[in-house]
Amino acid sequence: MTVALSTGWQSVYEVDFTAQGSQTFGADGNFTIDNKVWTVTQKANSRTFDVLNGTGIRVYPNTNSTDYENPSQTSAPRIYIPVTNIFPSFSYPRHSIRIWFQSAVSGIDQNFERALRGVEKNAAQLEFKIMCEDGNNPSFFRHHLVSLISNTLQYPSGTYTETPTTDDVDVLTVVPGSTWMYSGLYSGGWPTTFNNSAINMGFSTAQQIGNLNIILGSYNNTNNPGNMTHDVKRMLVQIKES
To answer: Which of 26, 76, 101, 179 ranks highest by number of CB atoms within 10 Å?
Structure first.
């Protein structure tokens, strides 16, 4: 089954990370990628965490990285950018946001190895990530309720799964009262149809006023760490009035 996305969105920023010059994140701090300022945190908990020309942003966690699901679990290496660094007048829920990611994940073969791609409010609240749920069964849609976001965001009853490839596209749409997730493939451009029906993970907007961060990262299973690498190749950000 394939589905198409709704129209009416304004594309405000698109970046091909694979076309950027190589850049080493030597430590935590601010870095400029494609003239936009991003913030790196927990660099020390990575084997490789850099911009690699031809590859994109690579996040390769080490054995010190742990779950990134609440404010006490913050050792996952990650990089984030406030949406206002891209679209200065952005304010949720006045604006809805849709983010497209093209990524490649390899070596994901342990429970709790996870690649993070999504949005959050402040430090550690709303996550959108792929993970290895059971051995070699990566789940593209895993969403965690964490502190201060709402009390209604829950797992879907049926999770869409498929084997990752170098052309995977995930689309996260956040509109007042709900989030929508889609999966497709990049083939000379962003897909126009997707592999799954929309998964609606409704949540309250009560504590979602203001800015959001776009976040990329990954972490290992500390009890049995593997060799997962997470490469983010492209990103497209779209905005519309809610």
So the answer is: 76
In contact, 37 and 88? CB cutoff 8 Å: no
Domain range summary for the chain, segments of one domain joined by +: 3-241
Q: Is 102 exposed, middle or buried (0-12, 13-18, 19+ CB in 10 A)?
A: buried
pLDDT in tens, 123-157: 444 444 433 333 334 444 444 433 333 222 223 33
CA distance 1 to 4: 11
Candidates 52, 120, 35; CA nearest to 83 is 120
Q: Which CATH architecture has domain 3-241?
A: Sandwich (2.60)
Average pLDDT over residues 111-126: 66
Q: Is the per-residue pLDDT at 71 higher than 90?
A: no
What's the pLDDT tens digit per position in 200-212? Answer: 555 544 345 678 8
| 90 contacts 84 by C-beta, under 8 angstroms | yes
Rounded Cα distance between 198 and 56, Å, is 27
